[in-house]
Amino acid sequence: MILKKIIIGIFLLSFLSACVQNVALLGPAYTLAASGSVYQAGITYGGNEVVTKTTGKSVAQNFKDILTLNEDDTEFEKLVKENIKKTRKKLERSNR
Length: 96
Prior knowledge:
It is a single chain. The protein is an all-alpha fold. Helix content is 74%, strand content 0%. It contains 5 helices and no strands. The protein starts with a helix and ends with a helix.
């Protein structure tokens, strides 16, 4: 069973490796399908594009940078970032 998952994972990884640019449209497409609102999907896509062009990083990369601990963070910021990491780990465990 594990071998089957590994083989499927390797196949999908190699087969879908050229689709990275198109994944940016996945979020707005899901929003369109879920809500049926073209305006909301357009705003989602437009917002992502503005953030990417302004910062040079994707939204996910910006969140990752925000959540990394820095030396000049206050104690409160460090506490919040650590709690976010712990919560994320708990959610990952519960989804398995």
